[in-house]
Amino acid sequence: MGHLQANGFSVTVVDAHILGPIKAENGVPRELQGCHTALVDGYVVEGHVPAELIHQMLEERPAITGLAVPGMPAGSPGMDGPNPQPYNVIAFEKNGKTSVYARR
Fold first, then answer.
1. What is the pTM for the complete model shown?
2. Residue 98 neighbours by CB under 8 Å, 6+ apart
3. CA 48/CA 55 separation, integer angstroms
């Protein structure tokens, strides 16, 4: 939440104990599910997606459902540490199609 706020996003937190239905309703493929799901101007943002890529997506308006960073890779926003690891930011569609949107 702090990463998004620091990068110009207004954040409203909704605590939910059962996340599966929320992710399914919003078309997040099971293999891309992470710990956070956000709805941003018609897109879904799943997991620790860098704010700069959310801004890029909102500018480009690609025909996708959203972006995801599955798991919690070291070095992704909010997962700072001494040994950052490269990770992919995945674009996904409701039909299950995925592609690499960016590499970090």
1. 0.88
2. 29, 32, 90, 91, 92
3. 14
